[in-house]
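Friendly challenge for the regulars: who can give me the structure tokens for this chain first? No prize, just bragging rights.
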Amino acid sequence: MSANTIQSFHLPAYHEIPDVGLYLDQVTRYINDSLQPLGQPTVTSSMLSNYVKKGYVARPVKKQYFRDQIGYFFFMSLTKQVLPLEHIHTLFTIQQGSYTAENAYENFRIRFESMLASLFDETKAPVLYPRDADFGQHMLESAVISAAHRIYLNYCLDNYPMPTENPAGSPGQS
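First reply, four minutes later:
Bragging rights claimed.
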């Protein structure tokens, strides 16, 4: 995982997400392949099934998942490391109260990509909601900021040059 790869990361736009009906194993593969450049923990079919069983994601139609459900799986996959599932569901429900599934997903995607790019390139400014935006928008923005910062911090820690131990075996002694 390189800084350039993360900086130029592209989450599939809503219209790019397959809407032909994917089976669970295909959805799992699609999400993992899409998120692989971020070094995200992989999602499993069991995880996605549990999201459906708990009522966080609509049930499949004839065992197939469509664009709205897959978009929600992306949202959950990227924010589950910083929020409990119940809070993720609340955030998405708030967004869907004001927006179509497409607009809710696109709001998330655009802000996530721009926040990630801005962390890895200080010349890029993130897309943020205006100060007078509603509370739901600011909560979504906080989730995006947290998820992007988690990825950034993991990258920094993974690539931090650790000092070698001194011969005595304890830091700071000469």
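Residues 135-158 form the longest helix (24 residues). The helical segments are 3-7, 24-35, 45-53, 67-79, 85-98, 101-120, 135-158. Your move, everyone else.
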